[in-house]
Write a structure and sequence with these properties.
174 residues, 2 domains, 5-stranded mixed β-sheet, 3-stranded parallel β-sheet, 3 helices
Length: 174
């Protein structure tokens, strides 16, 4: 059988195009090497151990920032008509419009390029709207019209490409 060998810090042997019955060879050569490789570079197949993150090479903060699992720390309740959403506080934020005195102008701060963000908006007793930043692009250029029912929850999903946000929404989780 003909094989192609790739060396990318870990040598992998792959059968070339048209090779028959290569499954066992693939398993015995390539898969074994992949499964024995450890992220610490030892290649012994062992899982990462506590020492890998207690020495600060891997931290829960770094993991949370990279896999977007950090949730909101507290409820945002605007006083007046402005609110800053700081994505450093989590990729999912909760905004309750019940304390606002009118429609709320949003400022979105600290996005990371390629970041995905979620804003849960709880509607006030008297329906209010959000005024979105100009850097936010909507499908067909149409921003969401928020639910009008008291305490209804609308979910806004955002993606930041480094220049603009791109948003979609689901409304009226009541």
């Amino acid at each position: 059988m003909a094989y192609t060998t790739l060396s990318l810090g870990l040598t992998l042997t792959l059968p070339t195009n048209g090779t028959k019955n290569w499954g066992s060879t693939m398993y015995s050569t390539t898969w074994t090497k992949i499964s024995q490789h450890k992220h610490t570079g030892s290649g012994d197949g062992a899982q990462l151990v506590t020492g890998s993150y207690t020495d600060l090479s891997i931290t829960s903060g770094k993991l949370a920032a990279n896999i977007a699992l950090k949730q909101y720390a507290s409820l945002m309740a605007p006083v007046g008509t402005t609110q800053t959403v700081n994505w450093n506080n989590g990729n999912t934020q909760l905004l309750d419009l019940g304390s606002a005195s009118g429609n709320v102008t949003l400022t979105l701060s600290n996005p990371q390029t390629g970041g995905r963000y979620r804003l849960h908006v709880i509607q006030a007793a008297s329906p209010l709207e959000l005024v979105w930043p100009a850097t936010l692009k909507w499908p067909q250029g149409v921003a969401p019209i928020l639910s009008s029912t008291n305490d209804a929850i609308d979910v806004i999903e955002l993606y930041w490409d480094g220049t603009n946000y791109f948003g979609v929404w689901e409304l009226d989780f009541s």
